[in-house]
Design a protein that fits this description.
Elements (H helix, E strand, L loop, with lengths): L1 H20 L8 H11 L2 E2 L4 E4 L4 E3 H8 L2 E7 L6 H18 L6 E7 L6 H10 L7 E6 L2 H11 L3 E3 L5 E3 L3 E4 L4 E6 L4 H18 L1
Parallel strand pairs: 4-5, 5-6
Antiparallel strand pairs: 1-10, 2-3, 2-6, 4-9, 7-8, 9-10
Protein backbone atom coordinates (compact mmCIF):
# COMPACT_ATOMS: atom_id res chain seq x y z
CA UNK A 1 0.00 0.00 0.00
CA UNK A 2 2.79 2.39 0.91
CA UNK A 3 4.59 1.56 -2.31
CA UNK A 4 1.45 2.24 -4.34
CA UNK A 5 0.92 5.54 -2.55
CA UNK A 6 4.52 6.56 -3.22
CA UNK A 7 4.16 5.71 -6.90
CA UNK A 8 0.96 7.76 -7.13
CA UNK A 9 2.61 10.75 -5.44
CA UNK A 10 5.56 10.59 -7.84
CA UNK A 11 3.22 10.29 -10.81
CA UNK A 12 1.17 13.30 -9.69
CA UNK A 13 4.30 15.37 -9.15
CA UNK A 14 5.64 14.33 -12.54
CA UNK A 15 2.39 15.25 -14.28
CA UNK A 16 2.37 18.59 -12.46
CA UNK A 17 5.90 19.35 -13.56
CA UNK A 18 5.09 18.37 -17.15
CA UNK A 19 1.98 20.56 -17.06
CA UNK A 20 4.05 23.55 -15.95
CA UNK A 21 6.84 22.95 -18.46
CA UNK A 22 4.53 22.41 -21.40
CA UNK A 23 2.14 25.29 -20.74
CA UNK A 24 -0.70 23.01 -19.69
CA UNK A 25 0.26 20.35 -22.26
CA UNK A 26 -0.18 22.84 -25.11
CA UNK A 27 3.56 22.85 -25.83
CA UNK A 28 5.63 19.74 -26.30
CA UNK A 29 8.93 21.26 -25.16
CA UNK A 30 10.04 23.76 -22.56
CA UNK A 31 11.30 26.00 -25.37
CA UNK A 32 7.87 25.99 -27.01
CA UNK A 33 6.34 26.82 -23.64
CA UNK A 34 8.83 29.66 -23.18
CA UNK A 35 7.92 31.07 -26.57
CA UNK A 36 4.20 30.82 -25.83
CA UNK A 37 4.72 32.64 -22.53
CA UNK A 38 6.74 35.38 -24.25
CA UNK A 39 3.99 35.85 -26.84
CA UNK A 40 1.47 36.35 -24.04
CA UNK A 41 3.74 38.34 -21.73
CA UNK A 42 6.58 40.13 -23.58
CA UNK A 43 9.75 40.09 -21.49
CA UNK A 44 11.96 43.06 -20.65
CA UNK A 45 15.46 42.62 -22.04
CA UNK A 46 18.70 43.51 -20.27
CA UNK A 47 20.59 46.45 -21.71
CA UNK A 48 23.88 46.00 -23.53
CA UNK A 49 26.52 48.27 -25.02
CA UNK A 50 26.58 47.99 -28.82
CA UNK A 51 29.29 48.89 -31.31
CA UNK A 52 27.74 49.76 -34.67
CA UNK A 53 29.27 49.26 -38.11
CA UNK A 54 30.06 52.99 -38.16
CA UNK A 55 32.06 52.65 -34.93
CA UNK A 56 29.46 54.41 -32.80
CA UNK A 57 28.89 53.12 -29.26
CA UNK A 58 25.24 53.03 -28.19
CA UNK A 59 23.15 51.14 -25.68
CA UNK A 60 20.59 48.65 -26.93
CA UNK A 61 17.84 50.25 -24.83
CA UNK A 62 18.57 53.73 -26.19
CA UNK A 63 18.82 52.46 -29.75
CA UNK A 64 15.46 50.69 -29.56
CA UNK A 65 13.73 53.62 -27.90
CA UNK A 66 15.22 56.34 -30.10
CA UNK A 67 14.56 54.47 -33.34
CA UNK A 68 10.94 53.78 -32.38
CA UNK A 69 10.37 50.90 -34.81
CA UNK A 70 9.63 47.27 -34.05
CA UNK A 71 12.90 45.41 -34.53
CA UNK A 72 13.36 41.91 -35.93
CA UNK A 73 16.58 40.75 -34.26
CA UNK A 74 18.88 37.86 -35.03
CA UNK A 75 22.29 36.79 -33.71
CA UNK A 76 25.18 35.97 -36.00
CA UNK A 77 28.90 36.43 -36.58
CA UNK A 78 30.55 37.57 -39.76
CA UNK A 79 32.80 34.50 -40.24
CA UNK A 80 29.85 32.10 -40.18
CA UNK A 81 29.22 30.34 -43.48
CA UNK A 82 26.35 28.08 -42.49
CA UNK A 83 23.25 29.06 -40.55
CA UNK A 84 24.13 32.77 -40.52
CA UNK A 85 24.13 32.85 -44.32
CA UNK A 86 20.75 31.14 -44.35
CA UNK A 87 19.39 33.79 -42.00
CA UNK A 88 21.04 36.49 -44.10
CA UNK A 89 19.29 35.21 -47.21
CA UNK A 90 15.94 35.25 -45.45
CA UNK A 91 16.63 38.73 -44.09
CA UNK A 92 17.29 39.90 -47.66
CA UNK A 93 13.81 38.67 -48.55
CA UNK A 94 12.38 40.27 -45.43
CA UNK A 95 14.09 43.56 -46.25
CA UNK A 96 12.53 43.60 -49.71
CA UNK A 97 9.11 42.65 -48.32
CA UNK A 98 9.33 45.50 -45.79
CA UNK A 99 9.97 47.89 -48.68
CA UNK A 100 7.14 46.49 -50.80
CA UNK A 101 4.63 46.67 -47.96
CA UNK A 102 5.61 50.22 -47.09
CA UNK A 103 6.64 49.27 -43.56
CA UNK A 104 10.13 50.76 -43.49
CA UNK A 105 8.97 53.50 -41.14
CA UNK A 106 7.53 50.91 -38.72
CA UNK A 107 9.78 47.85 -38.94
CA UNK A 108 13.54 47.32 -39.13
CA UNK A 109 16.02 44.46 -38.98
CA UNK A 110 18.88 44.26 -36.48
CA UNK A 111 21.70 41.70 -36.69
CA UNK A 112 23.81 41.43 -33.55
CA UNK A 113 27.20 39.71 -33.62
CA UNK A 114 28.17 37.68 -30.57
CA UNK A 115 31.76 37.28 -31.79
CA UNK A 116 34.12 39.54 -29.77
CA UNK A 117 36.49 39.53 -32.76
CA UNK A 118 33.98 41.26 -35.06
CA UNK A 119 34.96 44.88 -35.73
CA UNK A 120 32.97 47.73 -37.32
CA UNK A 121 34.89 47.01 -40.53
CA UNK A 122 33.87 43.35 -40.41
CA UNK A 123 30.24 44.36 -39.91
CA UNK A 124 30.40 46.82 -42.80
CA UNK A 125 31.85 44.25 -45.18
CA UNK A 126 29.27 41.69 -44.08
CA UNK A 127 26.45 44.20 -44.58
CA UNK A 128 27.74 44.92 -48.08
CA UNK A 129 27.76 41.20 -48.91
CA UNK A 130 24.19 40.95 -47.67
CA UNK A 131 23.18 44.01 -49.74
CA UNK A 132 21.72 45.51 -46.58
CA UNK A 133 19.85 48.80 -46.80
CA UNK A 134 21.14 50.77 -43.78
CA UNK A 135 17.77 52.44 -43.42
CA UNK A 136 16.14 49.06 -42.80
CA UNK A 137 18.85 46.62 -41.75
CA UNK A 138 21.41 47.54 -39.10
CA UNK A 139 24.37 45.64 -37.65
CA UNK A 140 26.17 45.87 -34.30
CA UNK A 141 28.56 43.91 -32.12
CA UNK A 142 28.48 43.43 -28.36
CA UNK A 143 31.83 44.24 -26.81
CA UNK A 144 31.13 43.62 -23.11
CA UNK A 145 31.35 39.90 -22.30
CA UNK A 146 29.02 39.95 -19.28
CA UNK A 147 26.36 41.99 -21.06
CA UNK A 148 26.68 39.76 -24.13
CA UNK A 149 26.08 36.62 -22.08
CA UNK A 150 23.11 38.18 -20.29
CA UNK A 151 21.53 39.25 -23.56
CA UNK A 152 22.08 35.88 -25.24
CA UNK A 153 20.51 34.17 -22.22
CA UNK A 154 17.50 36.48 -22.38
CA UNK A 155 16.97 35.65 -26.05
CA UNK A 156 17.58 31.93 -25.52
CA UNK A 157 20.65 31.81 -27.78
CA UNK A 158 23.30 29.20 -26.97
CA UNK A 159 26.79 29.79 -28.37
CA UNK A 160 29.48 27.10 -28.15
CA UNK A 161 33.07 27.56 -29.41
CA UNK A 162 33.94 25.18 -32.24
CA UNK A 163 37.23 24.26 -33.99
CA UNK A 164 39.07 26.80 -36.15
CA UNK A 165 37.66 29.74 -34.21
CA UNK A 166 34.09 29.10 -35.31
CA UNK A 167 30.93 28.81 -33.19
CA UNK A 168 28.02 26.43 -32.96
CA UNK A 169 24.80 28.27 -32.14
CA UNK A 170 21.06 28.00 -32.41
CA UNK A 171 19.10 30.52 -34.41
CA UNK A 172 15.72 32.20 -34.53
CA UNK A 173 14.14 35.55 -35.29
CA UNK A 174 13.08 37.76 -32.40
CA UNK A 175 10.44 40.48 -32.46
CA UNK A 176 11.47 43.28 -30.09
CA UNK A 177 9.42 46.36 -29.22
CA UNK A 178 10.80 49.90 -28.99
CA UNK A 179 10.32 49.60 -25.22
CA UNK A 180 12.93 46.84 -25.15
CA UNK A 181 10.62 43.86 -24.73
CA UNK A 182 10.98 40.50 -26.44
CA UNK A 183 7.50 39.95 -27.89
CA UNK A 184 7.83 36.86 -30.07
CA UNK A 185 10.28 34.23 -31.30
CA UNK A 186 9.93 32.72 -34.78
CA UNK A 187 11.95 29.86 -36.27
CA UNK A 188 14.15 30.44 -39.29
CA UNK A 189 12.52 29.29 -42.50
CA UNK A 190 9.34 31.27 -41.83
CA UNK A 191 10.24 34.78 -42.98
CA UNK A 192 6.81 35.24 -44.59
CA UNK A 193 4.98 34.28 -41.41
CA UNK A 194 7.32 36.51 -39.44
CA UNK A 195 6.49 39.56 -41.53
CA UNK A 196 2.77 38.78 -41.40
CA UNK A 197 2.99 38.77 -37.60
CA UNK A 198 5.01 41.98 -37.43
CA UNK A 199 2.81 43.68 -40.01
CA UNK A 200 -0.32 42.81 -38.03
CA UNK A 201 1.38 44.05 -34.88
CA UNK A 202 2.39 47.48 -36.23
CA UNK A 203 -0.84 47.92 -38.19
CA UNK A 204 -2.76 47.23 -34.99
CA UNK A 205 -0.63 49.77 -33.15
CA UNK A 206 -1.30 52.36 -35.86
CA UNK A 207 -5.04 51.69 -35.72
CA UNK A 208 -5.04 51.97 -31.94
CA UNK A 209 -3.51 55.42 -32.18
Amino acid sequence: MKLLLAVLVIAVLGIGALWAQTDGFTALTTEAARRADIARHPRALPDAALLTRSGERVSLADDLRNDGRVAVVNFMYTRCFSICLAMGGEFQQLQEAIRQRGLADRVRIVSLSFDPADTPGDLSRYAARMRADPGIWQFAAMADADQRRALLDAFGIVVVPAPLGQYEHNAAYHVVTPEGRLARIVDIGDAAGLLDDVSARVTGERAAR
